Amino acid sequence: MRDRDLREWRTLIRERADREWRELSPDVVDELACHLAELHAAALTNGASQAEARHRVLDTLNAASFLEVSRRPRARHRPTGYFQDVRLAVRQLRASPIVSAVAILSLALGIGANTAIFSIVNSLLLRPLPVRQPQQLVTLTTGSWTNPIWEQIRDRHDLFDSVCAWSETRFNLASGGETEFVDGIWASGSLFETLGVDAILGRTFRASDDRRGGGPDGAVAVISYDFWHRRFGGAADVIGQTLKVERVPFTVIGVTPPEFFGPEVGRTFDVAIPIGTEPIIKGRGTWLDERSTWWLSIMARLRPDQSIDAANVALRAAQPAIRDATAPGWNGYINEPFSLEPAATSKSALRRHYERPLIVVLTIAALVLLIACANIANLLLARATARHHEFSVRRALGASRWRLARQLLAESTVLSAAGAIAGVVVARWGSQFLVRQISTSGHRVFLDLSLDTRVLVFTIAVTIATTLLFGVVPALRVAASEPMEAIKEHGRSRAARRGGLSGSLVVAQVALSLVLVVAATLFVRTFTSLATLDLGFERDRVLVVDINAERAKIDRTERLPVFARLLERVQALPGVAEAGLSRITPVSGQGWNVSVDVSDTPRLEGRQAQTFRNAITPRWFAAIGMRLVAGRAFTDADRKGAPPVVIVNEAFVRRFLDGQDPVGHTVQRRVMFNRNQPNEPPPPAQEIVGVVADAIYDNLREQIPPTMFEPLAQSEMSVVPQLALTMRTAGSPMSDVRSIASAIRDVNADLAITFRPLADFVDASVARERIVAMLAGFFGGLALLLAGLGLFGLTSYTVERRRPEIGIRMALGAAPSGVVGLVLSGTAGLVALGILLGGTLSLWASRFVGTLLYQIEPRDPVTLVSAAAMLAAIAAIAAALPAYRASRIDPTTVLRESQV
Amino acid sequence: MEFAGAIREAKKGTAELVVLAFLDDEPRHGYELTQLIEERSGGALTFNFASLYATLYKLEERKWIQGRWVEKAGQRRRRYYRITPEGRSVLAAQRKEWGQFFELIRQLAGVEHA
Q1: For chain B, what are the domain ranges?
Q2: Which residues of B touch A (CB under 8 A)?
Q3: pLDDT in tens, A660-696
């Protein structure tokens, strides 16, 4: 009991001494604590209650000043070391927990956001592939190549040290029914060797594995470390086991190291199989001899003495021979000179798509951190001013300027360090969250977000920069303290100067916040325009089932009847209102186009003559919710052998028919030169029988392109193995998946099926806009909040400082409303200046975001004005409370205070 | 009893004298000293506890008194201060000085020595 009391008294004494910047020796603390304990005991003996006794002790303690006590010779160890600086700083920050918490929280969010986004930038744009000597790798630009071209390059051994090709894909591992996709790679036999990646178990591919139809060991597969653990539980005997890829058995021969995620940043792979095994899976549909199917990426490793220029020259010298060997006489075929690019950080479609948004978002996050710094600088400045008296006294007692500045810098450092530690936690969570947002159900994004040196250095640099940004000014201000100055003048002139500096900080804050709010508004409006865009079809309550008959043993000509039976079965299900088949699903990333001529209209040239196509069954329009505006829909009578017909969309009518009534015109498809069948007759002309309202074909951001629809039964697409079954469902799209799956299995159990709500495709196509809008909106809101807090702090402080003046004004008859006006006008001036600066800055910065916007101008005046208005409103709210408080100042109290 | 003006100022200088005087009889601890001073002055003279210890430490620094932690059975640990021979002679000198001073005041201002 006694000990506990003593401990408490000791703590209280230390805290009390801290407030006076006194360090007491343990001996002194002990003695004083004993004294308080005696006092406490005596009070209890005299009949005081516990609370009263405690009160009495606290009164005694609070009336004490330790200034002289600590001069005691035994208390010689004054805090001078850096460790003491930090200890004092921690105590000082704990003394005002709310201010410190706000500061640390804003730093955590600021540093965390910057680190999160930087770690994505790092893994997507900066970090080299985790392979041997990545700087020797070059990639053949741009885009993809055909297998015949790849084989030509592969067989010219003198061009590079080594060269490889691959294609990213998805493999279905299910043996029937609903698909089970994993990320896959078609890999050349040289892929792993070129990259310099060795298996951690078994072996990687050799050139012999890549022979057509499989090598000496048959069809073999290399799996990733992650997949090995997921699928095989990391079993050591995985080598030699069989894995069914697209229902073809492959033998697992090796496992890649954990850090290797494949040749492309932003993706990962589970299973790699040799390009040469492609015919085993695709059968007659193989792409290996296709001269116009561009699907392979090519990467080479330079010889140690070889420059990229030399490699370019060598490759270009071989180009004519490669052209002649693959497709002699084709016009415009690989006539652009081959060009190699450094591939150390790998090529990536994800990077192209996200490079600019990432840089914009990183800039936004940096601005938020700047605003947070301004806020914290202001807080510290206010606190430094409040402690000015203390600092002056300490100067008078012999503390050096450096000593005092160091103390404040220590406080800033402790704040930033706490913010940075919390920030790293925020960053880890945040970056994973962001990557999940980028991923869509059809495309899994993988980024290696592990903390590497670069991210660590970045975070530390940001932390140091923030410390300097918000810590130096208050420290300099304190270092400039003159001994005893504050005691003489009550710190007033100094406070006024501090007011000016804070004012500039607030102006900067308002300006930056405006930029962020403008950016947020632009991005949010872009996203909402896209999200609420009239697509021309129903996005909700529509389910799409991709059906793949490739591995089902159905003859090509029998496919359509099977699909028709399937459609019939599904249509009979109670949960399905409408159903139709199509070759293409809108916004799925697929495309199919052709150049056409329309009867009795002028011939169009080049891209102008192109129209997108789709092949559908009669009820597909009803299923997806597209509206017929003229003519008729397809019927079952539009079958093979019946007069060929098409339905076109309004954009088609605008482009090709220029206002004429389209119904009755015919569409003639143009035929490209086909070397394989030079004498093939032109396709029959198709009569336009109807017009549908415009609907998005693939890209929400682009103008709706001319599109024509033909009956599936009349189309060459009636024999393709893969079609999409689109259904309008009665309830939520995924609720009837089971009955639909079993209906499809009843028709043919070998069909591979994938379910996906149509809304998923739409959401995926605006994933980038959603994530940018979400982040910009979040940061914009944060900026508003921080700016509001900053203004509130500054106004409250100003009111506090001008209390005597306001009191005198009120004593002389100033009305409360006049006082409110006085306070608000000061703040309004700063805000107006900030808005002016911010507006100019926004106009300048808008050029960088133009390409990311949709249906809104980067310099949209409405956005600018509404953002300014929003900021002004926040400022008004932030300043109103202190202004109201100012109007409630009691003049007599103030006058009495100033007499003292 | 509150003193004002000149006496309030003078009181500060008397602290050392008072403390030395109380320690002249026997060693005492800080709490005991505050109680004694308050009691003997009828509450007219009180020390803020921090100033009392400040005075004690100052006197100790000048080697006029000496402090020592003492632990007695059934009691809490206390730091007892004992006057040193040097302190005794300072006390004697101060007593004399103050006596002369009061005599002077009496003669000049007609104030009776308490």
Answers
A1: 5-109
A2: 29-31, 34-35, 48-51, 53-54, 57-58, 61, 76-79
A3: 899 999 999 887 655 555 566 778 899 999 999 999 9
